[in-house]
Specification:
The complex is a heterodimer of chains A (109) and B (304). Chain A is 53% helix and 6% strand. With 109 residues, chain A is mainly alpha-helical. Chain A has a domain of 35 residues. Chain A is rod-shaped, with a radius of gyration of 32 Å. With 304 residues, chain B is α/β, with parallel strands linked by helices. A five-stranded parallel beta sheet of chain B has the order 4-7-10-3-11, with helices on both faces. In chain B, strands 1-6-5 form a three-stranded mixed beta sheet. The chains are: A mainly alpha (109), B alpha/beta (304). Strand 1 of chain A pairs parallel with strand 2 of chain B, so a sheet runs across the interface.
Chain lengths: 109, 304
């Protein structure tokens, strides 16, 4: 059974409260419509602000994801070219010594 | 983690290196066999120029060179590599002040030896006097020369246990079949994988050119010295035939003492007798020495 992550667990936001379900203890009277309108307007403004923030955050995430994808493609390509033909971990290219620093010892004959 | 020996040789001819038709012909033949993909084995008695020729061919190939000198004490690990010492790593983690976390890790330090380095990077290997190593030490060469693959031990730093030999890898061998001390017979399987070129003493032209180049004597003088050595060699009276080294020694020694190449010269007689009688005797028996000294005296007077 897969372990649930933080996003899979229900939080306080998921509980329907009296406030969000529009229930009240006092009986509804006509004169309170203005108050309800005011309260709903406030809730709407708050949620719209939150949605705008999330949209902005989503935009940033998508941009970063595209950057990461580009970087990964580049690195995968260079990792593939470094891989030796014999399946070993170190590259053993024929022209290796030219790239590597060897101590040279002149031998005169 | 694998470490490697990182010193490579760059053979270059000395200004007095002589390349006569004889030497050129040998070099070209050897290069042909190498181009065809075969290792070359120069076999010959002492003083026939095996090692110098191997170095010359290696310099013509133009790749970095690693050189191994055969030895009785050699084992496979002297060629391939082995574990030399340990590498200890200790981490003390105090990130959480109330928790002490200590990690210790000790790994054996593997060092690749010359043969592995040559196979891995496609260098030219010169295995000088390979028959001085015990035959079993050279077993590793069988798969390298035939299947172009090298078997490596499991403990080699967790790396692959098979190493594909680089296509540029070339092997040159030398051996002296006439050596009477400290040599083993070469394995048939190994000898069968290489092309053996039997070297004889140099021709007269080459010997004269070598003596001239090494000593700076004029042609006529060099010819006389070489003549004495060659006549003594061909006489068959020596336990060990004198080589071009003897001629070089005579010429160089005469230069130092300002001697002349004259049969009547006492210095010339003395130098020739000292050098040739010691070079041609293995155990230094007095009777042999006396015989050689007498012959040298005779040839020096006759040809100089």
């Amino acid at each position: 059974m897969p372990i649930k992550g933080v996003t899979d667990v229900s939080g306080l936001r998921d509980i329907r409260s009296l406030h969000t379900s529009g229930r009240r203890s006092m009986p509804k009277v006509q004169s309170s419509a203005y108050l309800d309108l005011y309260m709903l307007q406030k809730a709407k403004d708050r949620l719209e602000k939150e949605a705008a923030l999330l949209a902005k955050r989503n935009q940033t995430i998508q941009k970063r994801l595209a950057e990461i994808q580009n970087q990964m493609e580049g690195l995968e390509q260079s990792a593939r070219s470094e891989r030796p033909s014999n399946g070993g971990k170190k590259a053993a290219e024929p022209n290796g010594p030219t790239k590597r620093k060897w101590k040279k010892f002149a031998l005169k004959y | 983690m694998i470490e490697e020996l990182t010193t490579i040789l760059e053979p270059t001819p000395l200004p007095d290196f002589v390349e006569t038709r004889y030497v050129k012909d040998l070099t070209e033949r050897a290069m042909g066999y190498i181009k065809a993909g075969f290792p070359v084995h120069f076999r010959g008695a002492s003083g026939t120029g095996k090692t110098t020729l191997a170095l010359h061919v290696a310099s013509k190939i133009g790749r970095p060179v690693v050189m191994i000198h055969g030895d009785e004490e050699f084992t496979t690990s002297n060629l391939v590599g082995g574990e030399y010492g340990y590498r200890l790593r200790k981490v003390i983690d105090r990130f959480v002040s109330r928790v002490l976390k200590v990690e210790e890790d000790m790994v054996k330090r593997w060092v690749d030896n010359r043969l592995t380095v040559a196979c891995k990077y496609g260098f030219t290997l010169i295995y000088d006097e390979f028959t001085r190593s015990r035959p079993e030490a050279n077993n590793i060469l069988l798969s390298i020369l035939q299947e172009r693959i090298m078997d490596l031990p499991f403990g080699r730093g967790g790396e692959e246990t098979y190493l594909k030999v680089d296509p540029n890898f070339t092997a040159l061998f030398t051996s002296n079949p006439e050596e009477y001390a400290g040599v083993h017979r070469s394995q048939d399987a190994l000898r069968d994988r290489m092309i053996t070129m039997d070297l004889d003493d140099f021709d007269e032209e080459t010997e004269v050119a070598i003596v001239r180049a090494k000593s700076g004597f004029p042609l006529k003088e060099a010819e006389k010295i070489v003549k004495v050595v060659r006549v003594l060699r061909e006489s068959g009276a020596c336990e060990f035939a004198p080589t071009v080294r003897g001629a070089i020694m005579i010429a160089k020694s005469l230069r130092v003492v300002n001697g002349h190449v004259k049969g009547s010269s006492g210095i010339f007689q003395q130098v020739c007798q000292d050098i040739l009688s010691s070079e041609t005797s293995r155990i230094g028996s007095k009777s042999n020495q006396a015989k050689v000294r007498e012959l040298v005296k005779k040839f020096a007077k006759q040809y100089c």
